[in-house]
Design goal:
Elements lengths: L1 H11 L4 H28 L4 H62 L5 H24 L1
Helix pairs in contact: 1-2, 1-3
Length: 140
């Protein structure tokens, strides 16, 4: 949920239209899989349906709340710290994404009993993803 708030705040900070469109596409692209993963986790814990719905509604409101908070912070700090604020939010959003997609994922799979071949493939795809992000960062 912190990641959803921070990514919304990064969008709420004054960015140019092309950056806002790219960030919006990135948010929308993985919002469905985040919601799906959240639902699976709640169903595994046998939460009542009404509680699941309330949590999903709360989750759906987090990113728009982050956009509003980001816009407020941008208004307060734009004249003095504009680029630093934007860079800080983007770095924090990227960091939470990388944490969730790598370290959290790796820790989860350390407890699972999988073949060495599968683990090697998984590590290879993880490394490929890191390289692709690096290439995109240099290319952009």
């Amino acid at each position: 949920m912190i990641h959803a708030l921070v990514e919304g705040a990064a969008l709420g900070i004054g960015v140019v239209l092309s950056e806002a469109i790219m960030l919006s596409i990135a948010i929308i692209a993985h919002k469905g899989s985040e919601s799906f993963a959240l639902c699976i986790a709640m169903l595994k814990h046998h939460l009542p349906q009404q509680r699941i719905i309330m949590i999903l509604l709360f989750f759906a409101c987090i990113t728009p709340l982050g956009i509003g908070l980001g816009a407020i912070v941008d208004t307060w700090t734009h004249a003095t710290y504009g680029q630093w604020t934007l860079a800080s939010y983007n770095a924090f959003a990227a960091g939470t994404f990388l944490y969730m997609s790598t370290l959290h994922h790796i820790r989860f799979h350390q407890h699972a009993e999988e073949s060495a071949d599968f683990q090697l493939k998984e590590l290879g795809f993880l490394a490929l993803g890191v390289v692709m992000m690096g290439v995109l960062a240099v290319w952009h």
